[in-house]
Amino acid sequence: MPDSPCLRRAFSLIGYFLATILVTASAGWASDYGTTGLIDTPTARMHQDGELALSFAYDGRQQAYMFTYQAFPWLEGTFRYSGFERFFNWDRNYEIKARILEESYYLPQISIGIRDAVGTGLFGSEYVVASKQIGQWDAHLGVGWGRLAGDELFDNPLSMISGRFDTRNADSGVGGELALDDFFSGEQVGLFGGLEYQMASYPVKLIAEYNPDRYDYDFAKAQQPTPSSPVSVGAEWEPFPGVKLAVSYQHGDDFGVSITSILDSSQPTPVYPAPIFQSTVDVTDELLPAQIKRQKWYDRLLYDMERAGLVLVSATLYERDGYVQLVVGNLEYAQWRDALDRIRSLADLHLPPYVRTMQLIIEEAGHRVHTIVTPRPSTFYSAEPEILARYESVLPPRMPGKPQFDTGFFTNRINMDFNLDNRLQLFDPDDPARYQIYLNAGLNYTLNKSWSIQGNYRFDITNNFDESRRKTSNSQLPKVRSDIVKYLIEGESGVESLYLDGRGSLASGLHYRAYAGVLETMYSGVGVELLYQPFQSRLAYGLSANRVRQRDFDGGLDHLDYEVTTAFVSAYWASPFYNYDIAVHAGQYLAEDVGGTFEVRRTFDNGWQVGVWATFTDVPAEVFGEGSFDKGFFFRVPLNTVFNRNTRGAFATRIRPIQRDGGQRLENHSGTLWWDLREARYDVFVNSSPRGSR
Question: How many Å from the N-terminal Cα to the C-terminal Cα in the chain?
C-alpha cells in the first residue's frame, strides 16, 4: 500500500477519536462505502439508534472517509468523501438507507437504500436488501439498480409500473441535485449479497461477498481493466468494543483495509460531584474573604453559589408571605435540573428561617426563560430531589422590579482567556483536510447585566492553507464565502471578532439580541435578532436582520467595498419524539439571493447534538456551481467526559462538503437564540430528571 499524506492524516485523526471518546459495540459495521454492509455492498443491518460511525477505507482503486449516523432506529444516513488512487479526482456523495421490515424468527430484515442520492452520481445505485441471521451465520441477498445492477441479470420489474424506469441517465453533472428520474431506473437489475460468519471464541468475522459492480468509471479513468471477479473475501477484527479493523482481497485484484470507530451519541454522561467545599456556615470569619459578611445571608449564599459554578443575580424577600425570589444562572452543569438541585440545597442553608417557598427565576445566557416555584427542602417532609420535583411548578418568567439584594460585580468586569484552538477546512475539492493550529486570546468585558464587549484574536502557530490549489474563486455570484482561502492565508493571525453584544428579555417569552462590530472572520456590521416562544409551547418564531460589510483578507480592521443586508423570518419546532428540533429560515442571504434554510438537529440527554441543514435559494444549480445547493452537518460534543468534571463546555463544528456563495448567512449571528436557550427550554427542563449531582 503506497504511503500518502492523506492516509497518514486519516489514521492520525481516527486515532485521536479513539483515544478521547468512549465507544460501544454496535449491531452493524460499516462497509468500505460507510453504510452498514459487507465489503462494498450494503446489508439490511443498521447501527444502534444514535450511533455515529467514523470510517476510513483504502484499496487499490480509492481511499474514502465516511460519516454514518443512525438518525432513527430505522433510518441511516452516510456522507462519503472518496479520492481515486490512480487519477486525480475527489468525490462527495450521500447514502440513505431505511429499514422497512424488522427481522423476526421466520422473516428476514429488509431495508431499502439509495447510494449517491445527492452527489455527482458516480456511485449512483439503489437497492432492496434482505438479511437473515441463522446461528453464527448472517446471510444477505439484494436486488440492485445502477452500479449495483452490474451484469444485469433480469429486466427491471418497475418497468411494468411506468416506462420512466426504462432509462437511466449516465451524466454525473456537478452534483448536489436529487436525480429523482434515475432512482430505481435502468433496463435491467442485478443481484448482490454475501455471507458473514462470526467466530464463537474470537472477535473475528469472516466475510464472502458477491458484488456485480464493474467499476467502469474508476477503471476507465485509470485506463485499467475492469475487475477480474465479482467475488471478494475479507475478515473483520474487533480488538475492543466499538472499533473494527478489516482486511479484504477484492475482485481478485486488490487488497483493502479499513478502520471504523463507533461513537454512541446516546450514551449517558457520568454525573460528577461538585467540588467538595465547606459552606460559609461551617468556616470561621478569618477564612472568608473580607467582603463577605457572615451576618448577611445574601453575601454568604452568593459566595457559596459562585464556588459551586452557579450565578446569583439578585434576590427579594417577602417576609409576610414566607417566600424568596432568586434570579439565578448556571455556569457548569450540563443539565439545568442538576443546577437547580444544587441551588436549592445552598439556598436552604442560608435563607432566613421564615422562608418556606422559593421562586427561582432561571436566567440563561442573559435571558429570563421561566420561574421554578419549589418548597424549601428543610420545611418539607422529604428533601430527596425526586420527591421535591413532584411539588415544583414551572411558571412563566417573572420580571421583577428593583430587587432588595443585587450582585454588583457584573458591571465593568473583564475576563480574558487563552487557549490552543484549531481551524479545519474539510473536504477541499483537491484534498481531504486543511488545518490551522493557533493561540486564541478571548476577551469578555461586561458593561452591565445586559451588555458586554466580546472579542477574539488569533495568533497563528502552524497551518497548511497555502497548499490549497484553489486560492481564487470562480464563482458567478458575489464572493461572499468562496474567497475563504484568501482569509485563511492572508489572515492567518488577526482579529477574529470584536463586537458589542446585548441580550435580554423584553417580556415573557420575548427575547432579543443586538450586536455591532467585527462579527466574524469575513464580516463587520450591526444586527438584531428577536425570538418569541410562548410559555410551554413547542413552537417559536424568530426575526433577524443584519447590515454588514465584507472585511479585508488580512484579519485587520479594514474592509472591502461589498455591503449587503440580510434578513430572515424563522419558525422553530421542538418535536415530542427523539428530541428533534426543526428550524426553517426564509429571507435574503449574503449574496443577495432569496430562499430558505431547513435545519434538523437531534439532542440526546447527555448533550450530544447531531444535525443537518440544506439551503435552497433562487440561484440556479449551474450558477451555484459544484454541489448545486448549500448543505452540511452539525456536531456538538460535550466536554464533560474529556475534562472529567461538570462543565457546559462543548466542541461544536459545522462540516460543509463544498464552500460556495449561495445560501450563506453570518456565522453565529443569525437564527441563534433558539439554540442558545435550548437547555433551559420548558420542554427540555420538565422532561429531565434529577441525577443526584448535589
Answer: 54
